[in-house]
Amino acid sequence: MSVASHLHIRLDEYDARIRTFIPRYDEMVAAAAQAVCACGDAAPRVLDLGTGTGALASRILEGLPASRLTVVDEDEQILALARQRLRAPATAVTFAHGSFVDLVLPSCDVVVASLSLHHVRTAEAKGTLYRKCRAALRAGGLFVTADCCPSADPALAALERGAWRQHLERSYTPDETNAFFAAWAGEDVYFSLPDEIGMLRHAGFRPDVVWRSGSNAVLAGRAV
User: Fold this and answer.
1) Tell me, what's the pLDDT at 4?
2) Which of 34, 65, 148, 219 sits at a 20 to 30 Å CA gap from 25?
């Protein structure tokens, strides 16, 4: 499924509309990009899984301009937008069209993902992907993901969901908000924060929470 049909928007609206969908979106992406600086390399090989329009990749290049990026997305149309965003001649960016679940991942120093891994629908498949990322990383490499990771406690998760609803209703009617939640529930899977940490640890990472707001979090895991 394309990003446009998944979010029920036109692709040229994506960068503006994503902020109406995700609370503190810019802060989350900035935190993920900043975490990449912990890789300890001024010119890391970075693999971006589900790059979208290249927002996170762009922020990484701002902080580490000598980075060498491989950006992956299975939506050819949104990958074209990333090409436009990341086309500066001074940048070393390779574009890969395909599913990060199916592609052979190249060797790298950092793996990143932003609002993309919730499309992996089962814990088994996600664990397999995390192990695949660990195999692609050098020893001591870094994995960074920014995504929805709700609390395991149902009461806390309900509070987080309510805050998300309030954010959406600043831009959309209650009926529109309900329609978004219903559509996303059929396509996205959000594992709890403890479950995500457990899967990363089991895959060979030493995970930390480097940023959190409501149900959204940035997790960073050092390859051990």
Assistant:
1) 47
2) 65
